[in-house]
Design goal:
The protein has 394 residues and is α/β, with parallel strands linked by helices. It contains 13 helices and 13 strands. The strands form three sheets. Strands 4-10-9-8-7-5-6 form a seven-stranded mixed sheet, sandwiched between helices. The protein has a four-stranded mixed sheet with strand order 1-2-3-13. α2 packs antiparallel against α9, α10 runs parallel beside α13 and α12 packs across α13. The radius of gyration is 21 Å and the shape is globular. It starts with 6 loop residues before the first strand and ends in a 5-residue tail after the last helix. The relative contact order is 0.17. It binds 4'-deoxy-4'-aminopyridoxal-5'-phosphate. 4'-deoxy-4'-aminopyridoxal-5'-phosphate (PMP) binds next to α4.
Length: 394
């Protein structure tokens, strides 16, 4: 905002627009580039696959890269015995719902208010336009607030005969890095097992960002029945997958897709997995922690209230005095100040395109310092401007 930035070139954690302005990428290429832009290993994997195989769709005649990738991913993600490929997170979630409904023979799906799972008609949420979708698609969807175990239990009790699955992002990302409180995810795992309902973790954003095995490894809870991954999975190229229990993945759903299993994409995906080591995850998470604590330290004494949320490498900023733990509390924050901050940081060289942001493997400590400087000075400026003009700070 207030206008799109056209990128002319970029490497690592930085990109330059057509006017010559350089930005630190705070959103990892919309969460698709954990290794940064133009990583040499990705570039060379793509080049090799392109020159030896070309880039047709891969589904009908898979390349060995497909099995190499599947083996690597299933070895990392707890509970992953088999996988289904998809070209995007939206399609992977579509398949996850089909798998769950086919396996259980039930239709109802419980989702979180403010959760985003892509473009499936049934899963479009509060922030997405529903124009042009069939209203009936949402008939079997029950919505509960994130971080509220009592509400999840009540929904399961009310619909226990018909619920196939509960779908949740380990950290809500669209409303701004809303992290679990207490052991919410572990408790959800226990609750869904108690009601014999499948737990689908939508790890399209967190999966390749928190730990090699995703959120269940990072937070330490029993594996979900299905895990959906995408975005960073392809090293910047489009790929996604559903992994999980073999018996569920073996359901004979329709999942044919021209661009799933593309050999060039999967070559990049294999390279990305190999470069995403446990040490790198620890380094990136500690940069995320430093970013969040630095932001907290700078905003504590300001005349406007600010909440800093997030976990691992991800952070969110909310202009409110209330604790932000679900969609409603995030939505109640001051949006004008958020937008003002976005303009300020953009003018000062931070590339931010969504409310969840933070470091990637391509960042260094100097980038964290730079991000903190820019966020801090911008928030200080807008807080003074807001108190001077008596903008509502809610
Ligand atoms: N799930 C989550 C949690 C997402 O953040 C997104 C994309 N923002 C999707 C699913 C959809 O993925 P895609 O855009 O690749 O269809």
């Amino acid at each position: 905002m207030p206008h799109p930035i056209y990128i002319e070139h970029g490497t690592g954690a930085h990109f330059t627009d057509i006017d010559g302005n350089t930005f630190l990428d705070c959103n990892a290429g919309w969460n698709a580039a954990f290794l940064g832009r133009a990583h040499p290993a990705i570039t060379s994997a793509v080049h090799d696959a392109m020159t030896t195989l070309g880039a047709p769709g891969g589904s009908m005649h898979p390349s060995p890269k497909r099995d190499e990738f599947a083996r690597l991913l299933c070895a990392r993600v707890p509970g992953a015995e088999k996988m289904v490929f998809a070209p995007s997170g939206s399609e992977a979630n579509t398949y996850a719902l089909r798998l769950a409904r086919s396996y259980t023979g039930k239709q109802t799906v419980i989702r979180m208010a403010g959760g985003y799972h892509g473009q499936h008609d049934a899963l479009l949420g509060e922030q997405s336009s529903k124009t042009g979708t069939a209203p009936a698609a949402q008939n079997n969807i029950v919505t509960v607030p994130f971080n509220d175990l009592t509400a999840a239990r009540a929904a399961l009790e009310a619909h226990h005969d018909t619920v196939a699955a509960l779908i949740v992002e380990p950290m809500m990302t669209i409303p701004g890095a809303i992290h679990q409180r207490g052991h919410y995810l572990k408790d959800l795992r226990t609750l869904t097992t108690e009601f014999d309902v499948l737990l689908i973790l939508d790890e399209v954003i967190t999966g390749c960002r928190f730990a090699q095995g995703g959120a269940s490894e990072y937070y330490g809870f029993d594996p979900a029945d299905l895990v959906v991954m995408g975005k960073m999975l392809g090293g910047g190229l489009p790929t996604a997958a559903v992994v999980g229990r073999g018996a569920i993945l073996e359901q004979p759903i329709s999942a044919s897709n021209t661009h799933a299993q593309n050999p060039v994409t999967l070559a990049a995906a294999v390279a990305a997995l190999e470069l995403s080591t446990a040490d790198e995850y620890r380094r990136v998470a500690s940069m995320g922690e430093r970013l969040r604590s630095g932001l907290r330290a700078c905003t504590e004494s300001l005349p406007i209230p600010v909440q800093i949320t997030g976990d691992g490498p991800c952070a969110g900023i909310h202009f409110t005095s209330d604790d932000v733990h679900d969609y409603a509390s995030a939505d109640a924050a001051n949006d004008d100040l958020w937008r003002l901050m976005c303009v300020g940081i953009t003018n000062r060289g931070l590339g931010l395109t969504s409310r969840t942001f933070g470091p990637t493997i391509a960042w260094t400590d100097t980038d964290v310092d730079h991000a903190l400087d820019v966020f801090s000075s911008t928030i200080v400026d807008i807080s003074h401007a807001a108190s001077a003009t008596e903008v509502s700070t809610r």
